Amino acid sequence: MSPRNTTQFTHFPDPLIIEPLQQPHKQTFILLHGRGSSATKFGPALLQTSFPFPSVLPPANTTTPVTTLISTFPHARFIFPTAPRSRATLYRRSIIRQWFDNSDLTTPDDQHTSAANEGTMVEGLQRTVGYLHDLLKQEIAVLSGGGGGGAENVVLGGLSQGCATSLVTLLLWDGETRLGGAFGMCGWVPFLPHLWSGGHGSGAVGAVDGKGELYGERVSDDDEEEGDDEDGEDEDEDGEQEYDSDGDESNGDEDEEENDEEDGDDEDERLDRKTAEGKGESWEDTFDPFSHSDSGDDSEKETHPASSLPAHPAVAAVHILREKLELKGKQLESPSPSLRTPLFLGHGDKDGKVPIHLGRGAANCLESLGVDVSWREYEGLGHWYSREMLADLTHFLKSRTGWKEDQAKKP
Question: Phospholipase/carboxylesterase/thioesterase domain spans which residues (predicted)?
Answer without folding.
Answer: 18-194, 338-398
